[in-house]
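Severity: low
Component: inverse-folding endpoint
Summary: output formatting inconsistent between runs
Steps to reproduce: submit the following structure tokens with default settings.
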């Protein structure tokens, strides 16, 4: 089980302290949304999770095959586009551009491209999921 604690910092607009295991950092939003831009916003955090997971998955996959994967660079972009299944509505489109450094055959590049979609965060975002929300007042 993965546990992350997010707490608002009352005196600092939209800043939130994020505690993930032994790591602590700030998330925030830009000033036009009431924040101070002191940390990544939630969308950036989501893209960072996808990019990090994809890179780690590629590195592990290549490592297990003794392929010489020297480096991975992933650029991610999220944009709002028209939803073709629901006219008049919008949906998110995430573009993930991956660059790998090393000497690979076409078959190896195809395998790396395929395995990118098998990283756990990609599967979490695209697969079936359930989000349960509990809320209580703590006066």
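Observed output (run 2 of 3):
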């Amino acid at each position: 089980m993965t546990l992350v604690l997010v707490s608002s910092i009352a005196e600092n607009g939209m800043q939130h302290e994020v505690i993930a295991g032994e790591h602590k950092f700030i998330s925030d939003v830009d000033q036009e949304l009431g924040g101070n831009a002191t940390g990544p916003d939630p969308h950036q955090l989501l893209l960072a999770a996808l990019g990090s997971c994809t890179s780690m998955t590629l590195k592990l996959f290549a490592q297990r095959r003794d392929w010489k994967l020297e480096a991975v660079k992933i650029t991610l972009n999220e944009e709002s586009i028209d939803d073709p299944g629901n006219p008049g509505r919008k949906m998110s489109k995430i573009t993930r551009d991956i660059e790998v450094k090393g000497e690979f055959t076409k078959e190896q590049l195809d395998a790396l491209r395929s395995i990118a979609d098998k990283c756990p965060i990609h599967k979490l975002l695209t697969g079936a999921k359930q989000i349960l929300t509990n809320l209580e007042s703590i006066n």
